[in-house]
Structures are given as structure tokens and as C-alpha cells.
Recover the amino acids of this structure.
């Protein structure tokens, strides 16, 4: 019997497309990229390939081309998926909801700005906890804060490596939401295979509100 549903943030609750489009464009405009005749499209394709291979997205690009300066991640360009408020409201009427996410400082404030903070009883951010997914410590911390056993919880996220694998290892149910770069991944073994796969937050209603 599930009691708690935990969510990732980027490409799960929020659309980051505009962020990445701006970032690769700014990176391509830097002198190092121009000297290599790299376009924004070239850099974007490298990020996609890193995602397929379960590698760190931007760090892989930086290392491959020996960039010494990274274009900033402009988080202000993130937007909430349009169906997020409705879905979270409905799910919160039946389950305790939480966040388990690799996020920069200020996640609580961003959730408030997006109008969805009241739906979450637990917010476990890597910045505040000092540990990054896929480290299971962040998941254990969130479960402890929610007073929820792993077998009573589900993790919903876009990444097989950061979300599905560690949650499944702890005994949580897992939902892969195929949005963003994570949708390019493929399970590389049973440990990475999600219990359920959806393509939007709206599909969670049919999964958890039957």
C-alpha cells in the first residue's frame, strides 16, 4: 500500500528546454567553442549522447572539448509543466508528496514561486542535504523525514540512473517519466528497469488514482 510519492524536479515537474537551448547557444558563442568551429547544435548533440551513455551531461562536454569556462545554467528560464498543479493537487488528496532532487540553493523559494510548495510535506534537496543523487543517502533522508518505509513509497523521475536505480535498490516503486534528456536513456539491466513508464504528469492520475 503506497503512502508517499516522491518527485524529481527538472524535466519531471519543470520544463528545462529553454534553459538548455540558451546554455548551448551561450557556450557556442564563447571563444573556446568558436576556435573549434562548434555550433550550438553540436554541443546539444553531445549532451544528448552523454545522456544516452549515463554520463554527466555538461561535465562530459566540458571535458571532451577542454573548455575552461562553462555557460551558466539559467534556472530562471525553467517553467512548470502546465499539468503539474492539477496533478499534484489531486495526488496530494490521497498521498503524502515529497521532493528528492539535485537542486541548487533556493528550491523551497522556487517551489513557492511556482505555486506548488503547499503540496509537499518533504523537500529533500541536494544543496541542503549535502549529498547528490544517485547516493541513496538522499533517498533515505527523505523517507525518514516522511516517516515512510521504502515499500510504501514511489519515486517519480526522468532519469534511470539518478531516480529509478537508487530508489529501486531501496525497495521503492519507481516511475520513469520520459521527458527531457532522460527519455534518451535505455535500461542497462534489470536494476535500471522502472516499474512503470509514463510520458507526462497527467498519466500519473491513471496510475495512482484508479
Amino acid at each position: 500500500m503506497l503512502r508517499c510519492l516522491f518527485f524529481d524536479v527538472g524535466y519531471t515537474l519543470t520544463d528545462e528546454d529553454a534553459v538548455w537551448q540558451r546554455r548551448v547557444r551561450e557556450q557556442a558563442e564563447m571563444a573556446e567553442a568558436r576556435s573549434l568551429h562548434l555550433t550550438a547544435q553540436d554541443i546539444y548533440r553531445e549532451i544528448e549522447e552523454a545522456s544516452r551513455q549515463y554520463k554527466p551531461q555538461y561535465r562530459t562536454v566540458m571535458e571532451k572539448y577542454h573548455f575552461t569556462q562553462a555557460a551558466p545554467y539559467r534556472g530562471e528560464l525553467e517553467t512548470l509543466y502546465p499539468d503539474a498543479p492539477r496533478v499534484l493537487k489531486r495526488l496530494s488528496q490521497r498521498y503524502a508528496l515529497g521532493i528528492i532532487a539535485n537542486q541548487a540553493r533556493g528550491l523551497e523559494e522556487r517551489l513557492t514561486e511556482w505555486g506548488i510548495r503547499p503540496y509537499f510535506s518533504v523537500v529533500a534537496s541536494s544543496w541542503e542535504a549535502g549529498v547528490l543523487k544517485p547516493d541513496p543517502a538522499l533517498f533515505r533522508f527523505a523517507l525518514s523525514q516522511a516517516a515512510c518505509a521504502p515499500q510504501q513509497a514511489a519515486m517519480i523521475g526522468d532519469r534511470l540512473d539518478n531516480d529509478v536505480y537508487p530508489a529501486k535498490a531501496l525497495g521503492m516503486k519507481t516511475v520513469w517519466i520520459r521527458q527531457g534528456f532522460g527519455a534518451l536513456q535505455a535500461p542497462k539491466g534489470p536494476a535500471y528497469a522502472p516499474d512503470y513508464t509514463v510520458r507526462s504528469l497527467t498519466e500519473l492520475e491513471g496510475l495512482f488514482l484508479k
Residues 4-15+78-208 form a domain with the Rossmann fold fold (CATH 3.40.50.1000). The chain has two domains: 4-15+78-208, 17-75. The CA atoms of residues 85 and 115 lie 8 Å apart.
